[in-house]
Amino acid sequence: MIGVIVGTHGKFSEEILRSTEMVFGQLDNVAGVTFEPGESVSGLVEKYKAALASLDWTDGVIFLVDLFGGSPYNAASRIAVNHEKMDIVTGVNLPMIVDLLANRGIEQVENLVNLAIHAGHDSMMSFRAIRNSQLEEEL
């Protein structure tokens, strides 16, 4: 089983996982970790270790964090550097989590990381660009 840990500044991880449950249903083998004002990166590493202890990560772990270079990323990198079956994806968003969880049972960590990155990129769209494209197709 591949575990998923969402680590973010503030309560964002808890709220995005609540939103994910609205789309995906009950989340299994997923943990949210918050980084609160006044906490240290070392404290965040301990939170990640506690989350890992609660998950089945026999086949690996993917950390989904908000910002590249932020404290949630830096703490996750301290753990992932020692484990081949761990990776970190930055820019966590709802489509990324949903696609990752929907494919977690059939893919391995490396493929899921690529899928999550593409889901994040593909979910960004402009209403006006889509509308203009549709108008051009109608002409």
From TrEMBL:
Subcellular location: Cytoplasm
Biological process (GO), any one: phosphoenolpyruvate-dependent sugar phosphotransferase system
GO cellular component terms attached to this protein's record: cytoplasm; membrane
UniProt cross-references to InterPro entries, sorted A to Z: Bacterial_PTS_sugar_comp, PTS_EIIA_man, PTS_EIIA_man-typ, PTS_EIIA_man-typ_sf, PTS_IIA_man
GO MF term set: kinase activity; phosphotransferase activity, alcohol group as acceptor
Coiled-coil annotated spans: none
Keywords, alphabetical: Cytoplasm, Kinase, Phosphoprotein, Phosphotransferase system, Sugar transport, Transferase, Transport
Predominant cellular place of this UniProt entry's protein: cytoplasm
Keyword Signal assigned: no
Source domain of life: Bacteria
One Pfam family linked to the record: EIIA-man
Domain PTS EIIA type-4: 1-124
Gene3D superfamilies the UniProt entry points to: Phosphotransferase system, mannose-type IIA component (3.40.50.510)
Listed PROSITE patterns: PTS_EIIA_TYPE_4
PANTHER family, per the entry: PTS PERMEASE-RELATED-RELATED, PTS SYSTEM MANNOSE-SPECIFIC EIIAB COMPONENT-RELATED
Listed name of the protein: PTS mannose transporter subunit IID
Species the sequence originates in: Paenibacillus peoriae
